[in-house]
Structures are given as structure tokens and as C-alpha cells.
Amino acid sequence: MTFDIPAPDERARGEARERLDGLVKPLGALGRLEELAAWLCAAHGTVPPRPLDDVRVVVFAGDHGVSAASPVSAVSPVSAYPREVTAAMVRVFLSGASGVNVLARQVGARVRVLDVAVDGDLTDVPPEVTAHKVRRGSGAIDVADALEPGEAERGFAAGRAVADEEIDGGADLLIPGDMGIGNTTVASALVAACLGLPAEDVVGAGTGVDERGRARKVAVVEAALARAGSRAREPFALLTALGSACAAATAGFLVQAAVRGVPVLLDGVFSGAAALVAREIAPEAARWWLAGHRSTEPSQAFALKALGLEPILDLGLRLGEGSGAVQAVPVLRAARATLAEMGRLADLA
Ligand SMILES: O=C(O)c1ccc[n+]([C@@H]2O[C@H](COP(=O)([O-])O)[C@@H](O)[C@H]2O)c1
Ligand SMILES: Cc1cc2nc[nH]c2cc1C
């Protein structure tokens, strides 16, 4: 698979830096905002960059085999919450009452939810929500492949198609969101596999499991890594062995945004893991991504470091859904406004 990914405009980045140095402020006084303003100029190829009016969050919802209750316990062995929450939350996103719905409204961003792999048939939701469904749930990665052959490619293609739909609809900025009980275990496995890290280092508490729960997650990730073996070296084989349809769809979404030259704000642990896999598929795509926020999950920190990304915000969020990235939108808009609206030192009376 090859992708025609545009290069950000380095001439515009240089012109932006020059213009920033000439604004009514001490040199460099706007810190990170200056870097973000120049990044946006390079993305848009203009100084100042265009406004970020149309921001869109796509929540990829799906279940993960690792969250299934065991014969001896009704609760998930790897999450503080039961897997039924995933399907229930799809309805909450549609009602507009989820965390990301509320936070997105604060910044005028839209939220779209897609059932990519919820373990159930959501017959009571609008048909467009299930239009890109790949399968119901996924294999439990410690004992079986997550996906059947060809499903990783289908999920990836679905994510690309969704990015195209949003960009054709006018999106200036895309945010990948995620909803899936158990998905922090899958994200940890992907990050460990991509970066060659031990499970013990990457696994966190997710929705809030205790030390015993975390130990179970570590064991699942270790078993998944052992099962995947050398397949971890090829991204689609990796997604098939220990990823999920949502991870594949999110990776496709990230790559297609880059193909179309549309900036992305990564969110938390799941989009960080998907971004690592997406970079293996299309290395140049990473130039179109920024990290919206720092999650509390260790695997996200490893992923962002490997991607060379410094999160814009650090609010201690661990909700997922795209919620943290949404909070960074006003920062990006502020960075743009400085270039568009501040006066120049040269004009001082
Ligand atoms: O992105 C994060 O920082 C994050 C950290 C912990 C949990 N989550 C969300 O919680 C769910 C996964 O948590 P868990 O414990 O079920 O693996 C999933 O729906 C994620 O969106 C998200
Ligand atoms: C209620 C709930 C909402 C979520 N949103 C993202 N992950 C979630 C996990 C739970 C449990």
C-alpha cells in the first residue's frame, strides 16, 4: 500500500516564524503558541493559517474480546466496567449527553459516532451509525487473533472512507475518538509490539482497575505478544493478531487525513496506539498529527514520545472519546489568532 501524502509547506513555516518574531511581544514570548501557529501555517501553506471553524470528532466504537466476562466472574477481567457499556454509550453519544458531546459543544465541534465492532446488533440506531460495521466484537487477543483475515484491511478502508466523508463535508480539523470497554489492554499490546516494550511498562489502570486487575492486563498483553510473534513486524498482521477493527479504522482515518492534508489532533491512549500503527503503514502521515493532550496511561506517553509529539494539554484526563483533544482546540485557535491579529513591532510609535 502506498499513499500520496503532501509535505507540509516549509516556506510557509519559515515565513510564519519571521512574522511571529516581528509581532508586538518579546522574541519567543508566546512559547508553544508560536510553534503551533507555525505548524498550522505549514499545514495550510498560508500565513496566517485559515480559521479552524469546522472541527469534527469521529468516535470509533467497538468491543474487544479481552473484556468478556470469564466463567467464574461476571465482571470483565481487564476493565473496571462491563462490556455492555460500549453499546449503551453509543446511544449516549447519539443523545448528545456524553462527555465528549458536552466538551465539543463548548468549542463548537461536531461529534459523530460509528459502530465499527460493537458486540451486538444496534437495531435502534440510525443506519448511518452501523454503515461501516466490520464485525461484532473481536477475538480475545491472549488466546486468539483479534480479526479474521482481511478484516484489518476492511477496517482501515472504512476509517479512510469516513475521513473522506468528513473532509468532503468541510472539516478543517479531525479528532479521532474511541469507545470500547477493554480497549486500553489492546492499545497497550499494540504499543508494546510496535516499540518492543515489556507489557509491565505499558499497561495502566484504564477505567480504574486495581493492582490485581492491572496484573491480569499485563498477563493478557504478554500472552498476546507471545502469540503474535513475528507477525508484529507487519502492521496489518499486527492489527489482525492483537489489534481490533476500531484500531484499524482509526489508523485508516489518520492516514487519510494526511493524504488530504487535513490536520489531526490525537486524543488519548487508543488514538496514540493507532497512530503508531498508522505510521508504520504510512510514515509521512505523522507530519499531519498533533497530540491534543496527555492521558494518564503509560502506553500513551510511550506512543507520543516515539511519534515525537509533545501534548498540548495535560489535564489528567483518561476518558477517551476524543475528549482531551477537543480541549486543545481553543489553544490551536488562539495560536492562529496571534498571527492573524497581533500588531507589529515595526509599527510601534
Ligand atoms: O484515552 C484515555 O486516556 C483513556 C484511559 C482510560 C480509559 N479510557 C476509555 O475507557 C475505555 C477503556 O478502558 P478499559 O479500562 O475498559 O480498558 C475506553 O472506552 C476508553 O475510551 C480512555
Ligand atoms: C461510562 C463510561 C464512559 C466512557 N467513555 C469512554 N470510555 C468510557 C467508559 C465508561 C465506563
UniProtKB/TrEMBL annotation:
Per its database record, what is this protein's job? Catalyzes the synthesis of alpha-ribazole-5'-phosphate from nicotinate mononucleotide (NAMN) and 5,6-dimethylbenzimidazole (DMB).
An annotated GO BP: cobalamin biosynthetic process
NCBIfam families, sorted: cobT_DBIPRT, PRK00105.1
Q: In which pathway does it act?
A: Nucleoside biosynthesis; alpha-ribazole biosynthesis; alpha-ribazole from 5,6-dimethylbenzimidazole: step 1/2
Species of the source: Prauserella muralis
Molecular function GO terms recorded: nicotinate-nucleotide-dimethylbenzimidazole phosphoribosyltransferase activity
Q: Give the family, as the similarity comment puts it.
A: Belongs to the CobT family.
EC number in record: 2.4.2.21
Entry keyword set: Cobalamin biosynthesis, Glycosyltransferase, Transferase
The record, for SUPFAM superfamilies, names: Nicotinate mononucleotide:5,6-dimethylbenzimidazole phosphoribosyltransferase (CobT)
Q: Does the keyword Glycosyltransferase apply?
A: yes
Q: What class of enzyme is it?
A: transferase
Q: Report the InterPro entries cross-referenced here.
A: Nict_dMeBzImd_PRibTrfase, Nict_dMeBzImd_PRibTrfase_bact, Nict_dMeBzImd_PRibTrfase_N, Nict_dMeBzImd_PRibTrfase_sf
Enzymatic reactions: 5,6-dimethylbenzimidazole + nicotinate beta-D-ribonucleotide = alpha-ribazole 5'-phosphate + nicotinate + H(+)
This one is known as Nicotinate-nucleotide--dimethylbenzimidazole phosphoribosyltransferase
